[in-house]
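Reviewer comment 2.1 asked that we show a complete input and output for one of the modelled complexes. We chose the magnesium ion case, as it is the one discussed in the main text.
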Amino acid sequence: MADDDAIVARDLTRTFPPTHAGTWSVLRRASPKREEREGGGRFVAVDRITFDVHAGEVFGFLGANGAGKTTAIRMLTGLLAPSGGTARVAGHDIAGESEAVKRSIGYMSQRFSLYEDLTVRENIRLYGGIYDLTMVQIRERTERMLVRLGMADAGGRAVRDLPLVWRQKLALSVALVHEPRIVFLDEPTSGVDPITRRQFWELIYEAAAGGTTVLVTTHYMDEAEYCDRISIMVAGRIGAMGTPADLKAQFRVQTIDELFVRVARPDGAAAPERAS
Ligand SMILES: Nc1ncnc2c1ncn2[C@@H]1O[C@H](COP(=O)(O)OP(=O)(O)OP(=O)(O)O)[C@@H](O)[C@H]1O
Ligand SMILES: [Mg+2]
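Response of the prediction step:
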C-alpha cells in the first residue's frame, strides 16, 4: 500500500439475503455461476476484491452486467456497509469514517442522480451547497459549467425536459463541481452518442489533470483504452487487472473487446495464455 493510494480495498465483500419473492423462478433461471455465489443461502455480489487505485489515476472498472461493479462502488462511497473486508478511500475507512469519505468524493450514480423537477441551475446550486461551496464559488462555477457544457441558455429549464445527453453531462459535471479528490462515475456514458462520449472523456481527463482520481465503469470497450489501468470483474471477483497494454499482452489478444470476452465469459476459464 503506497501513501499516494486514493483507494485501497482489501478482501472487500458484500452479500445479500436470498430473494424471497419468486425464489423458485429465480433459482431455475439462475446460471450455475450465480448458484455457486449463493453459498450459505446468501448471494455474494462482491467477493473479496483486493485492489489499489493510485492518486491521479483513471481506473476503469469493467465487468459484465451483474458482476458487482455498482455494489462495490456503493461500498467505496460509504453508502453501503461491507459484509467483510476493508477499504480506505482518500485515507478514510469506509466503514468507520463514511462521512469523511463522502466529503472527499464525487459520485455519479448509475441511476439518475439529478432532481428532475429542479432547473439545471438549481441542481448545480444544490450540489454545490451539499458540498459546502460558498455562494460565490457556486455562482462562478455554475456559470462556467453552463458555458463549458454548451448549456448557457438551458440554465432555467427543468431537468426532466432536457435530452438524455444533456442530463448525463450535467450529472457528470455536478459530480465534479466541488473538485473532489476522487470521483466515482458509474456508467457515465451509458446511452450517449459516440461524439458526446468523446466530450465526456475530455471532461474526465480534465478532472484527472487537475489531480482528481477517477474510478469509472463502462460497457464500451473503446473507453477502456482511455484508462491508465483497468480491472475486469467476473461474478463478484476481479478476474484481471493491469494497464490495457499489459493485459492485452498477457492474454495475447489484440483488443480490449477480445480481452473482455476472454476474461468475463460465463465458463469463467480466465487464464492468461502461457508462453510456449
Ligand atoms: N440490494 C440488493 N439485494 C439483492 N441483490 C442485489 C442487490 N444489489 C445488487 N444485487 C445483486 O448483486 C449482483 C451485482 O449487482 P451490481 O448492480 O453490483 O452489478 P453491476 O456490475 O453494477 O451490473 P451492471 O453492469 O448491470 O450495472 C446482481 O446479481 C444484483 O442482482
Ligand atoms: Mg452497475
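The two ends are 34 Å apart (CA to CA). We note this here for comparison with the apo prediction described in Section 3.2.
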